[in-house]
């Protein structure tokens, strides 16, 4: 009987209690109480939400909401694999079964373009997101004229329940033993991962190489080298530039790190495998989502708890690799009554308030407000907060256009083939460029592509 | 009936034992995983201190809906299997033995086959709309109806094969003795088709028990079945292997018990009045 | 009077019996037909209509534009479609043939055992009781490169670790093994029931006529099992053609396109990319291919029989 359920939760709560006390929140509960927005009496709503590492935090926040306001929020907890199907079904037909939909950032464009979600200001013209809420890749904004997710001329469509960006997490003990410092530049990563691998026998640097996510892991390298999928998508120029010389450099460096320092099966690694390699003590450094921190720092799940450090993304030519962000967005469908829309918005207003976010983080969520997260950064157990905040600054959410799922599929496959050696990096990019151009042409975008890279 | 002797007996036994081992080994691995801590699973420990934590989390965790899932699955699988067997057997018997015009049986069988071949993905959208319209969304009734239809093709095809092997003379004899068509069916066909009925029943039950996509789309918390509960442990970034293994093991018990019970019921209920 | 009534009675009996038979056979088929009409007609028509259209959603309303040629040209341009088809065929042929051979063999072996049949059956069907999601997750652990029991065994013998799911040449076979483990029980169950249901009189008669075991198997048992084998073959082939869970949970179609199959392609197009028109066309093509596969199998079997006879 090593673990009992809830032990992790209690541990987090204890840690947080101490943390809050140290920072001085706990001394002023009355003040905190005053920050709670008065949302009034509302009709009951049902929220579509996924099982996830941060769900217990969300559940605790909802419980607090119900207790404070007397309003009812029913949670339909759904496996991740069923979220898109359920959200799509909800917005079809006469009346939605759910009044709040948690939508993955990568799926949002489909819902925006179909006009199936309610702009929050249509419900309450006065509503504004508090300043302290993170930009979070801006996936919850939509500018219909530009067909782009941006607050610039865009309408607010939801609230992020988490801003799930990447971190570089490393073993402090291993790096110390090898007398190495965590890498600062991309070239450092390539050198130090080999050095730490030679010194410790652990995998030097592990990240996802599997078809579905390799494109996600590579995109920071691509962007930091000044390249992108297309010329200027935000302003309608979909000329494909993925086969630029800069992109090739980015790919070569990326593959060098993956092949040089990852396991032999890197081309099949998912996020779950990456977390497992670190938790089981087989990896010296990994790239991982912040959502994994609750597991990696939990002694019941990880043999390396207490031995971890985190650093911001590495730099290339003076530019930090922009962190890809895979957040969710809590949004309100069109096909529900006015009262239900108001009730859903009432919960969102409450959820982004400081006390709600404090309850959220206390139960294991990663808060979306700077003034709740920043004070924790000095606590040893929150060693990752500084790196996280640094990566969050300038984090990018990919998939901000209608064809993103198709492009992701094509690009993921070609990159994966380059990783397993079925294609040369040049051929992978040339092939992907031609295929992506065809996708954009089919949907009537203004497109074209750079001349093929020479082998 | 097909007894082996001598060397072939030994060889047969060895092959049988080998296949039991191949079947059991991964199964035992899942069983072991269900008693492991997350750390022991992550590091691939062969020797480990067993824990009941996964089972506690599945059954009594604060978020757990698993007991409800089990109840829903037992209901849906048992009721849908009973209905499938009844209407499937009637259909199979008339199609096989009562000389429907070739058109009727060809259309029926072709239809079931094409339907069975259809990707489930393309079915669930229309079904969602139909059951919303019927006001049966998130009810066990909806799941029962859908599982009956999904299991009908295999049941009918399978039972037709078994009925074909029953000697026609037995039925003719009963008819000469003055039995009505229903009596012939009840007293001659049913007892002889029992093994097929049990096989079809087990399969219908198992498919219903493990059906995921439709249950996911047509049900939310109230009517969610076991596969939905188990899939909760496969999160976006992290698979909770321990609780998932525990949930799978828990789910097997009622299924086994129900199937053994169901078999007894079928055997005793149907062979009782046999005219053999 | 009594004579004439007796004659009448005799004349009426077959008529009444005929009516009863008519009634029974209609009523008996009715429930199945009603269920099928209620729940399959709409999805079927919907699918075929979608395959001819381009579908978009705007303001919550679905808009259909009739453009069959557009979908067809997408199919012709789809480079992954051919790979997916070939992989699917390979997967189907491999897994179904292994499952049939093992399933039939096991059923005959199990039937030859005098005691413990119940146990053998219970043990053998355990795999089909496990939820497919869990099967995927657990076999991923078993195949795990760094922590899995398979590679632990190899290492214990001083052998090199194998990338069961990450090596292009092995990945599809690894998935086949999982499919064989999962679904041989289905074939076994059907065939075991078939063996149990064999008419004893026929076999006894053949034995008395001096047939040896091999002749018995070849000329009596297997022909009698043919309907059950056919059903097992048909339904395993269909399921293997539609294989999805194992692929998604184990390999996601990778590495490269090593395990890309039709259902995965379909899932990506129809569901992830939300291109419903082309997705529906892919479904229709898949349906046609499965039916063609089954018909081919049937005709080659007939041809073989004819040649042997």
Automatic annotation (TrEMBL), chain A:
<keyword id="KW-0574">Periplasm</keyword>
<dbReference type="InterPro" id="IPR050490">
    <property type="entry name" value="Bact_solute-bd_prot1"/>
</dbReference>
<keyword id="KW-0762">Sugar transport</keyword>
<comment type="similarity">
    <text>Belongs to the bacterial solute-binding protein 1 family.</text>
</comment>
<dbReference type="Pfam" id="PF01547">
    <property type="entry name" value="SBP_bac_1"/>
</dbReference>
<dbReference type="InterPro" id="IPR006059">
    <property type="entry name" value="SBP"/>
</dbReference>
<protein>
    <submittedName>
        <fullName>Multiple sugar transport system substrate-binding protein</fullName>
    </submittedName>
</protein>
<dbReference type="GO" id="GO:0042597">
    <property type="term" value="C:periplasmic space"/>
</dbReference>
<keyword id="KW-0813">Transport</keyword>
<feature type="signal peptide">
    <location>
        <begin position="1"/>
        <end position="32"/>
    </location>
</feature>
<keyword id="KW-0732">Signal</keyword>
From TrEMBL, chain B:
<comment type="similarity">
    <text>Belongs to the binding-protein-dependent transport system permease family.</text>
</comment>
<dbReference type="GO" id="GO:0055085">
    <property type="term" value="P:transmembrane transport"/>
</dbReference>
<protein>
    <submittedName>
        <fullName>Multiple sugar transport system permease protein</fullName>
    </submittedName>
</protein>
<dbReference type="InterPro" id="IPR050901">
    <property type="entry name" value="BP-dep_ABC_trans_perm"/>
</dbReference>
<keyword id="KW-0813">Transport</keyword>
<keyword id="KW-0762">Sugar transport</keyword>
<feature type="transmembrane region" description="Helical">
    <location>
        <begin position="70"/>
        <end position="95"/>
    </location>
</feature>
<feature type="transmembrane region" description="Helical">
    <location>
        <begin position="142"/>
        <end position="163"/>
    </location>
</feature>
<feature type="transmembrane region" description="Helical">
    <location>
        <begin position="107"/>
        <end position="130"/>
    </location>
</feature>
<keyword id="KW-1003">Cell membrane</keyword>
<dbReference type="InterPro" id="IPR035906">
    <property type="entry name" value="MetI-like_sf"/>
</dbReference>
<feature type="transmembrane region" description="Helical">
    <location>
        <begin position="12"/>
        <end position="32"/>
    </location>
</feature>
<feature type="transmembrane region" description="Helical">
    <location>
        <begin position="184"/>
        <end position="206"/>
    </location>
</feature>
<feature type="domain" description="ABC transmembrane type-1">
    <location>
        <begin position="70"/>
        <end position="262"/>
    </location>
</feature>
<dbReference type="GO" id="GO:0005886">
    <property type="term" value="C:plasma membrane"/>
</dbReference>
TrEMBL record, chain C:
<dbReference type="GO" id="GO:0055085">
    <property type="term" value="P:transmembrane transport"/>
</dbReference>
<dbReference type="InterPro" id="IPR035906">
    <property type="entry name" value="MetI-like_sf"/>
</dbReference>
<feature type="transmembrane region" description="Helical">
    <location>
        <begin position="216"/>
        <end position="235"/>
    </location>
</feature>
<keyword id="KW-0812">Transmembrane</keyword>
<keyword id="KW-1003">Cell membrane</keyword>
<dbReference type="InterPro" id="IPR000515">
    <property type="entry name" value="MetI-like"/>
</dbReference>
<feature type="domain" description="ABC transmembrane type-1">
    <location>
        <begin position="85"/>
        <end position="299"/>
    </location>
</feature>
<comment type="similarity">
    <text>Belongs to the binding-protein-dependent transport system permease family.</text>
</comment>
<dbReference type="GO" id="GO:0005886">
    <property type="term" value="C:plasma membrane"/>
</dbReference>
<feature type="transmembrane region" description="Helical">
    <location>
        <begin position="89"/>
        <end position="111"/>
    </location>
</feature>
<keyword id="KW-0472">Membrane</keyword>
<keyword id="KW-0762">Sugar transport</keyword>
<keyword id="KW-1133">Transmembrane helix</keyword>
<keyword id="KW-0813">Transport</keyword>
<feature type="transmembrane region" description="Helical">
    <location>
        <begin position="275"/>
        <end position="297"/>
    </location>
</feature>
